[in-house]
Design brief:
It is rod-shaped and about 160 Å long. The chain has four helices and six strands, in the order αααββββββα. Strand 4 and strand 5 form a beta hairpin. The strands form two sheets. Strands 1-4-5 form a three-stranded antiparallel beta sheet. A three-stranded mixed beta sheet has the order 2-6-3, with no helix packed on it. The protein has a domain of 59 residues: Nucleotide Exchange Factor Grpe, Chain A, domain 2 (Roll). By secondary structure, the chain is an alpha+beta fold.
Length: 249
């Protein structure tokens, strides 16, 4: 019993040592052997060394980052081009709006200036029309010889003002009758005139430039013996004239 137990204890000790030895082998690091000899020991030939070194993780990462930077730069370039296009389009629209507003303002200024001049002209003409009765009284006083002294000086100053306003007086005896400038209230016949002529001036007319403010009131004399109409010349052999002559015969 004693020997058996001793043998058993030795066996358990032996197996226990083997178990611990296996655990030690598993805990040791794995050894990798690479053959870097340039000459093959079996053939004696020189081994070829690869010309391209193995890829370095650091260089690979650098190249990847560089490619990413290029992609980002390309994306930024496209974005800048699109932004520049939008800005150019917006600038063209603003420029067109500014040109349109400038043209409208220029037209407005011209219209206002034209209206201002027209209003001034209408105001002057209205003032002259209001002064016409006074001017008629001055003309009657001149005809009767009553325009003397201070009254004559005032009339002369008023005539100067009318001349400065470009107001012209028309309607004199002997003027040819013009329906656009004369108002005929009397018609006579006279052998001394060859065309309708103003022989009496009842009221003188006034105009400003080409605009007649008031027509002159006149008496017109027509020719007493109007000149006969000149004969109508025709070509010989005209069938129309020949037929008319034959019908008269």
């Amino acid at each position: 019993m004693t020997a058996s137990s001793g043998a058993g204890s030795d066996t358990s000790g032996l197996y226990g040592d083997r178990g611990r030895s296996g655990e030690t082998d598993e805990e040791q690091p794995r050894v990798v052997i690479r053959d870097k000899r340039r000459i093959d020991p079996e053939t004696g030939a020189v081994r070829e060394v690869p010309s391209v070194p193995p890829a370095d993780p650091a260089s690979s990462s650098a190249e990847a980052s560089a490619g990413a930077d290029q992609d980002v730069t390309a994306g930024e370039g496209d974005s800048d081009v699109a932004q520049a296009t939008d800005l150019a389009k917006a600038l063209a629209e603003r420029t067109e709006d500014l040109q349109r507003v400038s043209a409208e303002y220029a037209n407005y200024r011209r219209r206002v200036d034209r209206d201002r001049v027209l209003i001034g002209q209408l105001a002057q003409e209205r003032l002259v029309l209001d002064l016409l009765p006074v001017l008629d009284d001055i003309d009657r006083a001149r005809e009767h010889g009553d325009l003397t002294g201070a009254f004559k000086s005032t009339a002369d100053q008023l005539g100067t003002v009318l001349d400065r306003a470009d107001v012209q007086v028309f309607g004199e005896i002997g003027d040819p009758f013009d329906p656009g400038m004369h108002e005929a209230v009397l018609h006579t016949e006279s052998p001394e005139v060859s065309e309708p002529t103003c022989t009496h001036i009842m009221r003188r007319g006034y105009r400003r430039g080409d605009r007649v403010l008031r027509a002159a009131m006149v008496g017109v004399a027509d020719p007493a013996n109007p000149a006969p109409a000149p004969p109508i010349e025709h070509l010989a052999g005209d069938p129309t004239v020949d037929e008319a002559s034959e019908s008269k015969e």
